[in-house]
């Protein structure tokens, strides 16, 4: 059994995509990031970066004590290796998957995340920041589109590299991107969206989605206003601290 500490964000969706594809038993433990639950001291024991998702594997392969992991890319890799699914066994295929997994973790996710922040959430719309991240997101879409010109999925067969990238393409409109500009990417996107496991994973996310976006200044402080002191105190910074 996997305990999945989760909220329906792109990084959260990555893990439900994998779990729904494989049918591995799991239990969702909601972490409402808008309420600051990611700063709970008990949660920080398994996710010291106070972000989600995180997992606790109650039945690791070595038969020992439960294993906890944070960082969505590390979780995908751990689960893929444990179950021998969605990552090739051969050295060349594995290398292909890993480089594109890390491409998403180091490029597409952070750049699209900053794109969302400055276009959608920032109280002050800064043209330089918006242009910077919209343009870089566009470049990364172009990289992915070119990669997909001669293959069905990012690394050949469907893999954790696709599961990592897909949720960051879902909000393409909020990123100022038009999938019609990227025909190979659009074909890939539509193919993954139609997978039954993808449909199930996103339906699960809707069960936990409450109000859209950032609804208050307190939520803004919780999501975007944290410092090292927040971690030391074991609680998010709010108007009173």
From TrEMBL:
The keyword Oxidoreductase applies. Residues 90-212 form the GST C-terminal domain. CDD domains: GST_C_YfcG_like (cd10291), GST_N_Ure2p_like (cd03048). It is an enzyme of class 1 (oxidoreductase). It comes from the Bacteria. Pfam families: GST_C (PF00043), GST_N (PF02798). Keywords: Oxidoreductase. One of its GO terms (molecular function) is oxidoreductase activity. The keyword Oxidoreductase applies. Its EC number is 1.8.4.-. Residues 1-87 form the GST N-terminal domain. Belongs to the GST superfamily. This is Disulfide-bond oxidoreductase YfcG. It comes from Edaphosphingomonas haloaromaticamans.
């Amino acid at each position: 059994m996997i305990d999945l500490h989760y909220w329906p964000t792109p990084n959260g969706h990555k893990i439900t995509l994998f779990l729904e594809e494989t049918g591995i038993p799991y239990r969702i433990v909601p972490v409402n990031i808008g309420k600051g639950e990611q700063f709970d001291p008990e949660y920080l024991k398994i996710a010291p970066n106070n972000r989600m998702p995180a997992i606790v594997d109650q039945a690791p392969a070595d038969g020992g004590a439960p294993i906890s992991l944070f960082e969505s890319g590390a979780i995908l890799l751990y689960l893929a290796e444990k179950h021998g699914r969605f990552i090739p066994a051969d050295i060349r295929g594995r290398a292909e998957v890993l480089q594109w997994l890390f491409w998403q973790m180091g490029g597409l996710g952070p750049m699209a995340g900053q794109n969302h922040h400055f276009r959608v959430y920032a109280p002050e719309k800064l043209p330089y920041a918006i242009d910077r991240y919209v343009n870089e997101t566009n470049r990364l879409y172009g990289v992915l589109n070119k990669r997909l010109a001669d293959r069905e999925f990012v690394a050949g067969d469907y893999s954790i590299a696709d599961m990592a990238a897909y949720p960051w393409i879902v909000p393409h409109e909020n990123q100022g991107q038009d999938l019609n500009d990227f025909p190979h990417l659009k074909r890939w996107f539509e193919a993954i969206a139609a997978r039954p496991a993808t449909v199930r994973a996103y339906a699960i996310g809707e069960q936990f989605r409450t109000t859209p976006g950032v609804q208050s200044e307190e939520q803004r402080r919780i999501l975007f206003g944290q410092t090292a002191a927040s971690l030391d105190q074991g609680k998010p910074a709010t108007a009173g601290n």
